[in-house]
């Protein structure tokens, strides 16, 4: 799931910065994990940017099948009428 | 209304006072009893155990909400979620949150959101109400549905003081729906800022590291340059010393050669070959003089030896034999016989004559001196 991937990426990113700041790594090793960190932060930003705000409602149609439709303020009145 | 407290009497006026500890509506005892009994049963079953609780994801991208579409709870939740994380995706499973079918609907909605697949966390709850209004969240079917959810569930029922069994079984209990929304979703701006900060920080750290390595490299280069300079100096000194050494050796050789010539000159005056040649020239003269002298001396000695030999010959016993005498000797003891008595009859004797020998046998011994 994207959420899990995002969480793991953030955790790894934190760990990378921590490791870089400990500064007992050789330079080439530092560069390697720095590149990984940049890649991770880009991926994280991409996940955030690509997410599109949606509010949807999960309902059951007449045949008992589940489907979703966009939420609107009308839903509140629908609910109360049903 | 049931009131618990301390009753006191103000005696002068005969008035009663109650200092109240607790007040509860009349009739709540039955529900309370059912609540306690179910709680005890489900606790014994282990449904409320802490180790059953799933961690709430730090960054949910899709939040499921199980509540009524008409209540205040959904408005609060939507407002907080959108404020904190403007691009959040929300999937609402609408239910009735009170009434006879509410419990079944809530349980079904939880199952539906679980099977929908892309939901990271579920908020289940409703706004405040009476104990009876909140009762659906104490129903066993709801508690079991929350326990069965694979997706982490946050409960948000009523106000802070209201506690339901749904709160006990949920992975996280939020005091209100707004608090639930705040608990499940971080502030997006904070996360973006955090990402930016991490990137900047790692870049700065790396730059510092690079600068540090650069300094080390410079120091290294300086060191190498220094070594090269010292090497050049040493090489120059060595060249210099080799040149001086060569000069010194040349001088030594020259003076040595001169000394040798000098000694050769001195030596040539003392050449033994010259002495020998000169000496050899005198040898034949000496040799001739020696030979002449030796001839004279040798002739004189020759004469003297012959004279002495003739003289010796006349004195030799053998010369006597020459005049007809012989010498008798015993055999084998070779004793010279002077008297006839010295021999026995039959004894072997040898007679030496002037020339040759005779072997004789004694046939008679005559001791007559007159014969």
Quaternary structure classification: heterodimer
Largest sheet of chain A: 2 strands, antiparallel
Can you tell me the overall shape of chain B?
elongated
Instruction: Indicate the overall shape of chain A.
Output: rod-shaped
Residue share in β-strands of chain B: 15-25%
Question: Overall mean pLDDT score of chain B?
Answer: 88
Computed CA radius of gyration of chain B, to the nearest angstrom: 78 Å
* Number of helices in the DSSP assignment of chain B: 9
In helices, the fraction of residues of chain B equals 40-55%
Strand sequence of the main sheet of chain B, in spatial order? Answer: 4-3-5-6-7
Report the portion of residues of chain A in β strands: 5-15%
Which H/E pattern describes the elements of chain A? HHEEH
> How many strand units of chain B?
10
CATH class of the domain at 49-186 in chain B: Alpha Beta
Number of helices of chain A: 3
Taking all Cα atoms into account, the compactness measure Rg of chain A is 22 Å
Q: What is the CATH T-level topology of the domain at 49-186 in chain B? A: Rossmann fold
Q: Alpha-carbon distance between the termini of chain A?
A: 35 Å
CATH superfamily of the domain at 49-186 in chain B: Succinyl-CoA synthetase domains
Give the gist of this structure.
The complex is a heterodimer of chains A (82) and B (371). Chain A is an alpha+beta fold and 82 residues long.
